[in-house]
Every structure is written in structure tokens, then in C-alpha cells.
Design brief:
Layout lengths: L1 H37 L6 E6 L5 E4 L8 E3 L2 E9 L5 E11 L5 E7 L1 H51 L15 H51 L4 H31 L9 E3 H18 L3 E3 L7 E3 L2 H18 L5 E7 L5 E5 L32 H11 L3 E6 L4 E6 L5
Parallel strand pairs: 8-10
Antiparallel strand pairs: 1-2, 1-6, 3-4, 4-5, 5-6, 7-9, 10-11, 11-13, 12-13
Helix pairs in contact: 3-4, 4-7, 5-6, 6-7
């Protein structure tokens, strides 16, 4: 627009100069008067013809303008623009020296250009602001949607890590990349669940099928022990075989017990279990064994920690924990039981034994897994697996920590009764 304005001014000057060359100063004055009269009073074209002393002869401005001259162009303020005579407009003009020393000035009121420039800048500014606002809003919406989908996948993964392998990632129905990821994850989880079920089914079936013949074998061994009164060596061998069969039967019974617990739904809140009373019952049961090993046992006096659960299951699980603590704690050390309602109901057993390396904290809950230092002691590696199964069915969590020295095992329940 500015270039076109300059070109129009140049063309106007050229036309006026040619008219002056043909008709002289009188013809040029007449033409300028006609041009000024033809345009609107607030027209945009500026004409001024002066003598060599810059005194106005004809035109629509009162005098030679004072402004910044740059490259043959003058930018100035047009003080008498408009009908009111008090409007200040910007103007741009080009002077031209005629033969005879006369000065010709032709220009344009550039207020329209200034307004257009201002509007363009404002429009671009508002457009930029609107683009940023819409971009941020769109980013928030899209990122929020993505985070919700990721949170759903993370929640499902957390439930699966907590032991609920039946959980699956929900599909949104949009058939987008997240749905494709969810389908792939669900197929992978189906395969993993099938493989784990097959492993558990095989081990459970083996335990179930072997339990009956082992029971018959033990009964036969017991009969032989009772009938062998004379041969001391044979009787000793039979006693050893009888103890081995008892250990095998115990192991298979624990495997079946774990299978039944894992197949059970979560415990419904139908029974009150006071963890403090349960701890004192465990102390009464294991105090003779601890005394035999020169250990001291202690339990809290807290009476207010009541949860919903199966007391028999919990008693068996905590029995395994205190049995392990007594088994591995050194002589003349201390085994402590503790319960509390804060921040959530918990049951904790701590000892001063060798502890468990942090790298083994998760592996010790696997079936038949035993640490190297534990292989010389009686056991089958199923005690903590049973504890994990009981805590899962109670929607509880079990954690191992360093007791400095020894091991602290804490079972945290979701809420008090």
C-alpha cells in the first residue's frame, strides 16, 4: 500500500511537470485548482505550488511543510486535515523543482495507511494471543486426556502388581494408539495369567495327587516303627524316614493351603480381629520355644487395633513370621511384636538375626525360594509364600526393612474396623 501511494505521487508529479512545460505557470496553477476542487474536502492528495522563496501560490495546504526529509521524501504532520481543522494526520509528500525556480509539492494523507498498519498489527497481535490461548487450551485438553488414559493404565498395572492378575486395561472405543496399546497389554496379561495358572495348577495337582500316597506311606512307616522293637538301627532309620515323610506331607499341605487361599476372594468385613490380642496369643504359643533358645519376646499393650479379617488365616501367617524370627535370631537376642493404628493398622515382627538382603526382598515370597544361609536349617521355602497369600486376600501389604541389625516385617492393612 505504501509503495502504491509513492508510485501515485510520482505519477502525479510527472503529469503536473509536463503540464507546466507545455502551458507555463498559469496553466499549472489552473490545473492544481481544478484538481483540488474535484477531490473531497477531506481528500487525501496534497498539492502546493510556491515561488522560489517558498511563498504559496496555490494548493490545499497553508505552507511548505516542516518534517523529516529522507531520500527526497518529506514525512510531516498535516495539521489542517479534515473539515474540523483540528485533526492531526500524518502525510508523505515529494518536492519537485520546476524550471524557473518554482517549487511543486505533491503528497498524500497517509492516515489511512497508518490506521491500516495499526489494525494489521492489532489483528496480528490478537491473532497471536488467540493462537497461544487456543494452543495452551488445546495442549491442556489433549495432555489431560493422555494423562487420564495413562493413569488408567498405571492404576491397572498397580492392581496387577498387587496380585490381582484378572485386571485389564479398559478400552475407550476410539480405536486410537492408546486402545491399540491397551489391546496388546491385555493380550500379554492374558498370556501371563494363563501361564501362571498353568504353573500353579501343576504344582497344586502334584501336591494333591501326592498327598494321599504319602499319607499311606507314613502310616506304613509308623506301623513298621511300632513293630520293630529289637533292631535299633532299623528303628532309627524308620524314625528318620517317618520324619522325612512328615516334612513332605507338611510341604504339600502348605502348597494346597496357599492354592485355596489364592483362589479365595478378598475377605469381607464380617469378623473383628484385634491385632494386639492376636500378638499376645502368639507370644504365649512361642514363648517356650524362645526360652529354649534363650530369646526374649515382647508384645505391645495396645488394645485398640481392630481390623476385619479371618483370624485363623492371620494367626497362621503371623505364626510363620514369628517362627522364622525365632529360627534365625541368635541366642540371647530379642524378638519384638508390635501393632498400631497409625497411619494405618499394622502388625510388625522384628528380630536381631542376619536379616535379608534388599535384593532378595521380593524373591523370598516366591514358592520354594530359600536364601543360601537358610538351606542348612529345616524348612521348605513356603512360609513367606503363605504369608503373602494371606495378606493379598486381606487386601493388605507386606514390607521388609532393615532392623539394624536383623529384619523387620510389617503387614499393613487398608483400614481399621
Amino acid at each position: 500500500m505504501a509503495t502504491q501511494t509513492d508510485a501515485a505521487i510520482e505519477a502525479e508529479i510527472q503529469a503536473l511537470a509536463e503540464h507546466y512545460e507545455k502551458g507555463g505557470i498559469r496553466a499549472l496553477r489552473q490545473l492544481i485548482v481544478e484538481r483540488v476542487q474535484r477531490q473531497h474536502p477531506t481528500g487525501t492528495t496534497i498539492f502546493l505550488l510556491t515561488n522560489p522563496a517558498y511563498q504559496p501560490l496555490v494548493g490545499n495546504i497553508s505552507g511548505w511543510p516542516k518534517g523529516n526529509e529522507n531520500g527526497g521524501w518529506i514525512d510531516f504532520t498535516l495539521e489542517d486535515a479534515g473539515t474540523a481543522g483540528d485533526e492531526l494526520h500524518m502525510a508523505r509528500a515529494r518536492p519537485f523543482l520546476l524550471r524557473g525556480g518554482f517549487h511543486l509539492l505533491v503528497g498524500r494523507d497517509t492516515e489511512t495507511l497508518r490506521v491500516a498498519k495499526t489494525r494489521i498489527i492489532q489483528s496480528l497481535s490478537w491473532g497471536l494471543v488467540l493462537t497461544l490461548v487456543l494452543g495452551i487450551a488445546g495442549g491442556v485438553v489433549i495432555s489431560g486426556r493422555m494423562l487420564r488414559r495413562l493413569d488408567a493404565i498405571n492404576d491397572t498395572s498397580q492392581h496387577i502388581m498387587d496380585g490381582d492378575l484378572s485386571q485389564r486395561v479398559l478400552l475407550s472405543g476410539d480405536n486410537d494408539e492408546f486402545d491399540q496399546l491397551a489391546r496388546n497389554l491385555n493380550r500379554m496379561l492374558d498370556k501371563i495369567e494363563t501361564l501362571l495358572d498353568d504353573i500353579h495348577r501343576v504344582s497344586d495337582n502334584i501336591a494333591h495327587d501326592m498327598k494321599t500316597p504319602l499319607a499311606r506311606l507314613r502310616a506304613r512307616l509308623e506301623t513298621l516303627v511300632q513293630s520293630s522293637h529289637e533292631d535299633f538301627t532299623s528303628r532309627h532309620d524308620l524314625d528318620v524316614a517317618l520324619r522325612e515323610s512328615d516334612q513332605l506331607l507338611t510341604m504339600f499341605n502348605v502348597v494346597l493351603r496357599i492354592a485355596r487361599i489364592e483362589a479365595s476372594p478378598h475377605i469381607q468385613p464380617t469378623e473383628h480381629v484385634n491385632l494386639a490380642i492376636l500378638a499376645r496369643d502368639l507370644i504365649d504359643l512361642y514363648e517356650p520355644l524362645a526360652t529354649e533358645k534363650s530369646l526374649t519376646l515382647s508384645c505391645p499393650t495396645n488394645q485398640g487395633v481392630v481390623i476385619a479379617g479371618d483370624r485363623d488365616m492371620l494367626f497362621q501367617a503371623f505364626s510363620n513370621l514369628i517362627d522364622n524370627a525365632i529360627k534365625y535370631a541368635p541366642s540371647k537376642s530379642h524378638v519384638a511384636l508390635d501393632t498400631g493404628p497409625v497411619p494405618k493398622p499394622y502388625f510388625e515382627i522384628s528380630d536381631q538375626g542376619p536379616g535379608i538382603p534388599e535384593t532378595e526382598h521380593e524373591r523370598v515370597f516366591q514358592r520354594f525360594h530359600r536364601l543360601d544361609q537358610s538351606r542348612s536349617t529345616p524348612g521348605n521355602g513356603l512360609g513367606l509364600s503363605l504369608v503373602r497369600a494371606v495378606t493379598n486376600v486381606h487386601s493388605a501389604t507386606i514390607s521388609l526393612s532393615d532392623n539394624r541389625p536383623g529384619l523387620a516385617v510389617r503387614v499393613t492393612f487398608p483400614a481399621a474396623w
